[in-house]
Amino acid sequence: MKIATFNINGIRARLPQLLDWLRAAEPDVVALQETKCVDHGFPSLEIEELGYNIAIHGQKGFNGVALLSKLPLEDVSCGLPGDDEDEQARWIEATVVGSRAVRICGLYLPNGNPAPGPKYDYKLSWMERLRHRAAALVEAEETAVIAGDYNVIPQAEDCRNPEAWVTDALFLPQTRAAWRRIVNLGLTDALRIYEPGPEVYTFWDYQGGAWQKNNGIRIDHLLLTPQAADLLTDARVDRHVRGWEKPSDHVPVWVELDA
DNA sequence: ATGCCTCCCCGAGGGAGA
């Protein structure tokens, strides 16, 4: 079962690229972020024509997450538990049953800039809620993949110019400590298993020729519970997609599970 | 980099992103 995450940066603006990638990469499950449209604006027909079922958690203008799956999406749940006041569409989860049942969680973690400030406070509190949800999945011994745009640069080797990020919400010590508290529940950062080297990035800014200079950061991650990690057979970045016409600033990242 | 792009809102110029 091939499971991918892709911050699409506007699904209506990016539909041709998304369809081209789906046809070429043939993922079984995709977690999308930054769909930037309400549910009735989602281009469902074109995606369903490629054989995907769809679960959407949209919002007007920004945010927005979705799951695509060639297998049925069961027990869909939208919204990260822990704050009933939180209206932002950043979390969706569902179960997909192949040879094994896999819980798929798609997330769009808040950016948090500028830090310090209320946006950074929201990021840290969201990460604490994420830790609680991840702990529950680990405790229940679920076969689960927690995939998405984490807006976290875990370590210095995950960016080209660490010194440029030292005061940024994506790389602040508090952010990376919160990330470690989540990973240290016993989760596996899947891409690191198959791409251990430096200069493995998933985002390149549109500005300043970042792509041409390979001035990237690794912020899109797939975290696996132990039961999912047992099934891991591959994990890669579809880096080439960033060189396409009118690309997203993120590229797809995927894992292959024997499930 | 207090923003060199690009998305969204809409139908101008501002918010958001990372």
Identify the notable features of this structure and list them briefly:
six-stranded mixed β-sheet; globular; single chain; 14 strands; Deoxyribonuclease I, Chain A; alpha+beta; DNA-binding; 259 residues
Mind telling me the CATH superfamily name?
Endonuclease/exonuclease/phosphatase
What is the CATH topology classification name?
Deoxyribonuclease I, Chain A
CATH class: Alpha Beta
SSE string, helix = H, strand = E? EHEHEEEEEHEHEHEEEHEE
The count of DSSP E runs of length 2 or more, i.e. the number of strands, is 14
| Uncertain segments | none
Shape: globular
Percentage of residues in DSSP E strands: 25-35%
> What is the CA-based Rg, rounded?
17 Å
Helix content: 10-25%
Largest sheet: spatial strand order: 3-4-2-1-14-13
Main sheet summary: 6 strands, mixed
Count of DSSP-assigned helices: 6
Average pLDDT confidence is 96
CATH architecture descriptor: 4-Layer Sandwich
Total domain modules: 1
Distance from first to last alpha carbon: 6 Å
Class per helix and strand makeup:
alpha+beta
